[in-house]
Amino acid sequence: xxxxxxxxxxxxxxxxxxxxxxxxxxxxxxxxxxxxxxxxxxxxxxxxxxxxxxxxxxxxxxxxxxxxxxxxxxxxxxxxxxxxxxxxxxxxxxxxxxxxxxxxxxxxxxxxxxxxxxxxxxxxxxxxxxxxxxxxxxx
Length: 139
Hints:
The longest helix has 16 residues. The protein is 60% helix and 0% strand. It starts with 6 loop residues before the first helix and ends with a helix. α7 crosses α8. The chain folds into two domains: 74 residues, lambda repressor-like DNA-binding domains (434 Repressor (Amino-terminal Domain), Orthogonal Bundle), CATH 1.10.260; 51 residues, no CATH class. The chain is an all-alpha fold and 139 residues long.
């Protein structure tokens, strides 16, 4: 099972990537803390109103929240460099130019088709052959 296979997991990931706490989301949306918690733990599903508000706040599509398809959370160079991201994000990258570059690649990946994604992988393997070799050994 993919770590972000559920609605709750995707909501939690998006909130974390945006650097928001549950109280922060409550302040910005008026969705109760308890409701936010039950959504993120998959004890309930978001109402259509909550879905739209959270989609707007997190900068993701409602399809991504509901099905994991479409535009997911994007990384912002305005976020603190020391922010910790889940497996779906990048670990804290102190260099804003580097983070901006990763952000651009991630955006191309998200909006691209299989051919585009394949091209990105080929280019990254060419640019970073040592890392590509290490990854082969892990699998």
